[in-house]
From TrEMBL:
Tetramer of two alpha and two beta chains. Its EC number is 4.2.1.20. The active site is at E58, D69. The keyword Glycoprotein does not apply. It comes from Deinococcus aquiradiocola. InterPro entries: Aldolase_TIM, RibuloseP-bd_barrel, Trp_synthase_alpha_AS, Trp_synthase_suA. This is Tryptophan synthase alpha chain. GO terms for molecular function: tryptophan synthase activity. Pfam families: Trp_syntA. Signal peptide: none annotated. Keywords: Amino-acid biosynthesis, Aromatic amino acid biosynthesis, Lyase, Tryptophan biosynthesis. Pathway: Amino-acid biosynthesis; L-tryptophan biosynthesis; L-tryptophan from chorismate: step 5/5. It is an enzyme of class 4 (lyase). Belongs to the TrpA family.
């Protein structure tokens, strides 16, 4: 496979997933799970369980200094790293999952692991593994043209983050740099389940993003159940709902992952 063979296909697969959810009258469900959590043997089955309900799946590349992650995801990353999950092993997980599903597979990574491997090599490995898109929470998109150019050359969609504190000018810069979807976070801070009130500023943020892009806008940070998913899908009219800490906590406590996903998915419906 050459780096340019399926450039449109991967980004189109991401956009098509949002379109299907929209046609079904709901926001897309985007579960997050840390690669290699709780260990390398059990992660594939957990990913498959989520893929049964997911419109897109976000796989977190475990990193030793995840400044944007709350305690639940931080501990999951530490456990995954201790179990031997590296950058290359994360991409190998994607490579093993890719033949089993048509669901878009996204890798969330801080920028340091990309630099550690080398941007060109990282993008090549991600492309060959079957990654559809990258979520880069700590990269200001206007400060590294090389990353954006390499990702595009290798057919990878790009997603950057906006927050309630983002200025209108900043929202415009970030949204225009995205090629997969726009990720709006409910608060400035770290991930994790919160009181539903943390989502109150999301409708204005989603509306602001839509002034500058036609891409889907997904919301994360603070969604943990059907009620909080409904705040995102209905009150904010978001195109996607990202859920991470709640799923990791469910795995940690031995809870039914499928039941939780079904509950949150029910909250993604647009009808009140």
């Amino acid at each position: 496979m050459t780096a340019t063979t399926d450039i449109p296909t991967r980004v189109q697969r991401i956009h098509a997933a949002f379109q299907r959810a929209q046609q079904e009258g709901r926001a897309a469900l985007i579960p997050y799970m840390t690669a290699g959590y709780p260990d390398q043997d059990r992660f594939p089955a957990i990913a498959q369980e989520l893929l049964k309900r997911a419109d897109l799946l976000e796989i977190g590349l475990p990193y030793s200094d995840p400044l944007g992650d709350g305690p639940v995801i931080q501990k999951a990353g530490e456990q995954a790293i201790a179990a031997g999950t590296s950058t290359r092993r994360t991409l190998q997980f994607v490579k093993e999952l890719r033949p089993t599903t048509d669901v878009p597979l996204l890798v969330m990574t801080y920028i340091n692991p990309v630099y550690a491997v080398g941007p060109e090599e990282f993008m090549r490995l991600a492309s060959e593994a079957g990654v559809d898109g990258l979520i880069l929470p700590d990269l200001p998109p206007d400060q590294d043209d090389e990353i954006r150019e390499l990702a595009t050359r290798h057919g990878l969609g790009l997603t950057f983050l906006i927050a309630p504190t983002s200025t209108p000018a900043r929202v415009q810069i970030v949204t225009e740099a995205c090629t997969a979807f726009v990720y709006a976070v409910s608060v400035t801070g770290v991930t994790g389940a919160r009181d539903g009130g943390a989502l109150n500023e999301v409708p204005a943020l989603v509306a602001l993003a839509r002034q500058h892009t036609r891409l889907p806008v997904a919301v994360g940070f603070g969604v943990k159940d059907a009620a909080t998913a409904r705040k995102v899908a209905v009150d904010a009219d978001a195109d996607g709902v990202v859920v991470g800490s709640a799923f990791i906590a469910a795995v940690q406590h031995g809870q039914d992952l499928g039941a939780l996903a079904d509950d949150i998915r029910s909250g993604c419906r647009k009808d009140r």
